[in-house]
Amino acid sequence: MTFRSAVITFPGSNCDRDMADALAKVSGTTPHRVWHGEADLPVGLDFIALPGGFSYGDYLRSGAMAARSPIMQAVIAAANRGVPVLGVCNGFQILTESGLLPGALLRNAGMNFVCREVKLTVENSQSLFTAGYDAGQEIVIPVAHHDGNFFADDATLDRIEGEGRVAFRYAEVVNGSARNIAGVLNAAGNVLGMMPHPERMIERELGGTDGRALFESAVKALVSA
Amino acid sequence: MKVRVFVSLKNGVLDPQGRAIHHAIEGLGIDGVTDVRAGKMIELEVEPSVSDAQLEEMASKLLANMVIENYRIERLAA
Fold first, then answer.
1. Comparing C-alpha atoms, which of B45, B51, B36, B38 is closest to residue B6?
2. How much is the average pLDDT of A55-73?
3. Which of A69, A181, B33, B74 has the most neighbouring CB atoms within 10 Å?
4. Distance from CA of A159 to the nearest CA of B (A)
5. How far is Cα A103 from Cα A198, in angstroms, rounded to an integer?
6. Would you tell me how many other CB atoms lie within 10 Å of the CB of residue A115?
7. DSSP designation for B10
8. Per-residue DSSP letters for A150-184?
9. What is the arithmetic mean of pLDDT over B24-34?
């Protein structure tokens, strides 16, 4: 079975190649590379990835310009049809700015850019992105961001917690995120945004393999669908 | 005509930049500043045909993120 995926590149994306590499290595199929200015996605996609980076130089707000780029209309339509969409780091910021995920990502509470490996707890191990992990499992994934401080009002936080939509939580204080939230799912469970970079942890040579199960889960979900 | 859109963080949204500026003001040795909030001002040059509704749309859909920010629009006399 072929896993048809696409990695979107915005001006200023810099983790698109790592993301494509991770998808290719785990799924065995080379992803499509799609430029932000295109209006249409390749037909029949099984998975869309919005990579990390600094799209449009973080002008206005991180992810704000990219969320309004032509390809995002197609990504939003695909997400609403149920196509899995993963946004990592800047990709997460783009997902909140586009309204596919709740909340917003503010400047880190300590004002510093944080670039290091962090411990995460897997909160939801039922989603198509996280089924390869155990609930409560602790994993190590690197972060590299300036605006990763997840914010939403209390009612929204209570709702997403109640619906099991917190996928990952920081097991330590990293950036001031509300309730230490590191990754959030949409209501349907087919859109995941997270600040840590699972694509940087897919083989031993990269320092660890804790990110690999995320991509394996998505591939497995498709095969069994 | 000139239009200014002032974007500010909503009450209750942490503003680490404002806090850092506050510290720096204290470093100047000036007392009496009790809080600092940083925002941004975006200045547009528009044709008179641009309506208030269109300005609202620009501000609410792009210039401000309504999850965390408020905006205020000011039309300046030509």
1. B38
2. 96
3. A181
4. 15
5. 21
6. 10
7. P
8. EE--HHHHHHHHHTT-EEEEESS-SS--GGGEEEE
9. 95
Orientation angle between helical segments A212-224 and A16-27, nearest 10 degrees: 50
Question: What gap in Å lies between CA A124 and CA A121, rounded to an integer?
Answer: 9
Chain-centre distance of CA A30, in angstroms? 19
Q: Is A181 left (phi over 0), alpha (psi -120 to 50) or beta?
A: beta
Tell whether B60 lies on the interface with A, counting CB pairs under 8 A: no
pLDDT tens for A185-222 read: 999 999 999 999 999 999 999 999 999 999 999 999 98
CB distance A22 to A29 below 8 Å? no
DSSP notation for A194-206? ESS-GGG-SBGGG
Average pLDDT over residues A34-49: 96
Q: Which ranges constitute the DSSP H helices of chain B?
A: 16-27, 52-58
- Domain boundaries along the sequence of chain A: 5-224
Q: What is the ipTM of this complex?
A: 0.88
Residues 16 to 55 of B: which have CB under 8 A from any A CB? 16-17, 20
Residues of A in contact with B62 (CB under 8 A): 60, 64, 68
Q: Any idea which residues of A carry the catalytic annotation?
A: 89, 197, 199
**What CATH architecture is A5-224?**
3-Layer(aba) Sandwich (3.40)
Domains of chain B with CATH codes: 2-75 (3.30.1280.10)
Run of H or E including A102: none
Q: In terms of Cα–Cα distance, which of A48, A102, A43 is closest to A75? A: A48
Helix (H, G, I), strand (E, B), or coil: what is residue B69? strand
Interface of A with B in 159-218 (CB under 8 A): 176
